[in-house]
């Protein structure tokens, strides 16, 4: 008897290589499963459990060209996760966002507690006291709130540990859109890993490098609505080399720098107007 939900297990050196292998494997072996977001006529999704290991998260090339957005939007997402640039959009009573990952990781609120919990600082403190601790983790899920909303957090937990002079990190997702979201998630979460490694280096007085990153998804899926687009993606794998399918960071640095300036202007526009800013 086969597995009800297949397991995709990938180990690769770089981030785009790991993502690409995982999403292709999901296409080939994923189970057909309906989702709550299917529209009439959509085929069932391809779905699997995924364990994706990136041995050197910051080895180049670092960016896959098959982004569901532009490089500027990738930079926005990175800054949302790392710096919380859009935490001020959290206002569910006004129809805005219910959460951001940054808010859950750095200002986790619990009914009855007066002060939010900065879980990221806890991780740094815990690893400074005992780099080998198995308790350096942060969660996002709030059962008293997230069971009542249509789009609860996909990221559930991050776990970190120092092995030798390297910081390893696991990110656990309950649900992950393999084709349209997973790469952006992995990119931003490894940036979070880098941020913690830098803080640890400063506190411990020795260099703590970014080590192995493992991305775990209970449901790693390709939506049926994307199948035609995904077929075109598969065709590019046959026509282009891996170098042609990826970006080295230095190649796109001018675009990212331009995006950072546009983000600053956008945030200032939001501060002055109270409305969502534009990257234009």
How would you explain this protein's 3D organization?
By secondary structure, the chain is α/β, with parallel strands linked by helices. It contains eight helices and ten strands. The strands form two sheets. Strands 1, 2, 3, 5, 6, 7, 8 and 9 form an eight-stranded mixed sheet that branches. Strands 4-10 form a two-stranded antiparallel sheet.
End-to-end gap: 55 Å
Query: Rg from C-alpha positions?
Result: 19 Å
Beta content comes to 15-25%
Average pLDDT number: 96
Q: What is the chain-wise order of helices and strands?
A: EHEEEHHHEHEEEHEHEH
Low-confidence stretches: none
Fraction of residues in helices?
25-40%
What characterizes the major β-sheet? 8 strands, mixed
List the helices and strands and how they pair.
Elements lengths: L6 E6 L2 H15 L1 E3 L11 E10 L8 E2 L6 H13 L17 H6 L12 H11 L7 E3 L3 H4 L8 E9 L2 E8 L2 E2 L4 H23 L4 E14 L4 H13 L6 E2 L1 H25 L7
Parallel strand pairs: 1-3, 7-9, 8-9
Antiparallel strand pairs: 2-3, 3-9, 4-10, 5-6, 6-7
List keywords for this structure.
alpha/beta, globular, two-stranded antiparallel ribbon, 280 residues, 8 helices
Describe the structure in brief.
The chain is of the alpha/beta class and 280 residues long. It has helices at residues 15-29, 71-83, 101-106, 119-129, 143-146, 182-204, 227-239, 249-273, and strands at 7-12, 31-33, 45-54, 63-64, 137-139, 155-163, 166-173, 176-177, 209-222, 246-247. It has eight helices and ten strands.
